[in-house]
Structure formats: structure tokens, C-alpha cells
Amino acid sequence: MLDTRPLLLTTDFPALTRGQMDTLQVNLGYLCNLSCTHCHVNAGPRRKELMSLQVVELVLEYIRRKQIRLLDLTGGAPEMNPHFRYLVTEARKLGVEVIDRCNLMILLEPGYEDLADFLAQNGVTITASLPCYLEENVEKQRGKGIYDGSITALKKLNALGYGREPHLQLNLVYNPIDLNLPPPQAGLEADYKRILAEKFDIVFNQLFTITNMPISRFGGMLLAKGLYNKYIGILKDNYAAANLETVMCRSLISFDYQGYVYDCDFNQMLNLPLVASSRPKPHLRDLLDDDLTGKPIAVGEHCYGCTAGQGSSCGGALND
């Protein structure tokens, strides 16, 4: 796969410093039951990288020491990590809100039949990928049969109270097709809610629109088709300085499956370590007693993806 990393390291993106941290994003591994074209992690069924129990225990220790209130679990399919349920239950005992970034299809996989019940019993917030409300667009990005399976999984979650009960939050994620930026989030959310309700009687809480990042699998596709410079140009042409105030890296840090620390999940995929440390590649165990507030953030050309248009973060648009 062609790699955009060498093209992203030199940038004129403005310098950023970290604010007060409230979110810990943990990548539990790159193993996934799907291989989506827009995936910035290059996850898939053949990946072997998974977080060990030893690192999971370090994550819990970091949560205790830093009094983290929000734990954002991602992958791959985070649920495929054998220690996923242990981490969720222990974090919930600490009063931490847990977000599971779920691809929906995992809820239908053999061996995971009780996963939805586990998530509901522990009050886990589900942020689920449904890159469009149209079958054709979903299957273009994620593969044949994924749309119908996703609808079945959403109905299963609704039946458990997700999207209906206040303590069971169900959010969906939209990713654009090809070189497009996401449309205004509020309007698209209204369309999603109307169409999914009319066609399937499905309800959910919020829609998050996320810009495709020019890295990993999506970045490789851009290079292969000669579209990389065009896409970077689109991101830069739509840069909005106001989004610098609320980009997610100012209040979040990201751990990879080995416990190494990054400013965000995208930097993790580019192997751009946290620069707010004297260590060249800081590990979680090195930062248990460090205060990162006010420290610099590693930036690259891909950062224009988070600041283009309405802005983009793991929680959707920054300015809708």
C-alpha cells in the first residue's frame, strides 16, 4: 500500500498547545471483522496486533491517577480484543463514561451474540459507523451486505433501549464518499433520522460527521489514483482558523495497543509520537505522573482535515 506519511510530515499548519485533558482514547488493536475503504487504521481480519492485559491494567491506572471521565475505545473492532469486557467493567466501576466505537456488524458475528446485551447492561455509549443512509454508498465504502447487517444491528440495539433510554446513547458516524467534505451536520442528522425512522423504525441520538483523513488505506487510495494533491488542496482551501480552538487533540490523548502515547488517533497511525515529553517515543508508564497541560502538539498536513469547513473530530463537527 502506498504511504502518504512522508508527504504529511512537513507542514505550515499552525502550532497547537494542549489544554485541559478530559478524554482518553485507547486503540485496543487493529484486528477487525471488516476492511473499509475509508479506514485510517488499515484494520482488517488479518491484523494480529492486540493490546495485552498488562497494558490494559496500565490504562486503568492512568484513569485512576488522572481522574479521567471519558474513555473512548477504538480499533479495529475494539470488541475483538479479549480484554475488552474487563476494561469496560473496570472503567465503569470507576464512574467513567465509556464509548465503544462499534462497526455494528460485530454485533452479528458468531461468538459475539451477547455483546449488545453486555454493552447495554454496562451503560456503554455506542458510536456506530453508518457512513450513509443509502445502501449503495454504504456498500461502496464497507462491502456488500454491510448495509442490511447494520440495519439489523441497529434494530437490535433499539430493542435493548439504545436511542430510546437516556442512559443508553446511540450515535452514528457519517463519512463522505471520495474527495468530498461532510455536509452540514445538523441538516444531515435530520435526514438520517427521518429516513431511518420511515424505512426501518430506527432511532438514534446524534449523527457525527467525520472528514476522511489522507492517511493509511484512504491515503494510499489517493496516491494510487493521483488524487493526493487535489484532496490536500480541498482541505487547505476550506481551512477555518476558528476550529483551532476546539480540535480534539487539545483535550484528548491517544494510546496505541502497545501503550505508546500520541496526541490523537491520526498521529498514532502516522507514528507521530507525543511531543509533550522529553522521551522520543513516550509510553503510558512514563506519563503516569506528568501534567501535559500547555505542552505542544505534534502537527502535520493531515491536521487540515480536522479544521476544514465545519471541522471534524471523533465527536463530529466542531462548528455546525
CATH topological fold name: TIM Barrel
Count of helix runs: 11
Strand content range: 5-15%
Q: Profile the largest sheet.
A: 8 strands, mixed
Summarize the structure.
The protein is of the alpha/beta class and 320 residues long. The chain has eleven helices and ten strands. The model has no long low-confidence stretch (mean pLDDT 90).
Task: Walk me through this protein's architecture.
With 320 residues, the chain is an alpha/beta fold. It has one domain (5-307): Aldolase class I (TIM Barrel), CATH 3.20.20.70. It has helices at residues 5-8, 53-66, 84-93, 115-121, 135-142, 146-159, 185-200, 216-224, 228-237, 265-269, 304-307, and strands at 16-17, 23-27, 70-74, 97-102, 125-129, 170-174, 206-209, 252-255, 261-262, 296-297. The strands form two sheets. An eight-stranded mixed β-sheet has the order 7-6-5-4-3-2-8-9. The protein is globular and about 50 Å long.
